[in-house]
Amino acid sequence: xxxxxxxxxxxxxxxxxxxxxxxxxxxxxxxxxxxxxxxxxxxxxxxxxxxxxxxxxxxxxxxxxxxxxxxxxxxxxxxxxxxxxxxxxxxxxxxxxxxxxxxxxxxxxxxxxxxxxxxxxxxxxxxxxxxxxxxxxxxxxxxxxxxxxxxxxxxxxxxxxxxxxxxxxxxxxxxxxxxxxxxxxxxxxxxxxxx
Length: 195
Prior knowledge:
With 195 residues, the protein is an all-alpha fold. It has 9 helices and no strands.
């Protein structure tokens, strides 16, 4: 394992416990058993580590899920519009809820209103989703599977709807987990909660 990867993983572990804003370069160095100045040989700042963590975890998630760059023309050619859209939603959900990415999003979501880097990471992820959806919708239009006047607006509407629904689903899951934990602490009867 390369040192940069070790730094990213140590930061991820600390941020998972304490939140990214509560992790310092000194804590990362201590976690790795190195001196703080050694970190600066690899990353200039904690913000740079956070950006690298996003790229690293996203790449790892795509590899684990065997998600590759798509040929949108081939994808839509022999499928109905409904099949294509369901597949698009399914793949994005898989990517977003893959365990490490889900944990990373929880870290980033908690600070995106107050941390510029966290907001930039979420904007980058949304822009990637928008671009992929636009490419998909253009392919659907070329293969005469979708008929809309403004393909860009249709892609944006679809993307943001799916994005919001995934956010809602993740918020509900977090809320249930929190409620369940509180209930367990009070009554120690976790098995009464249904999902």
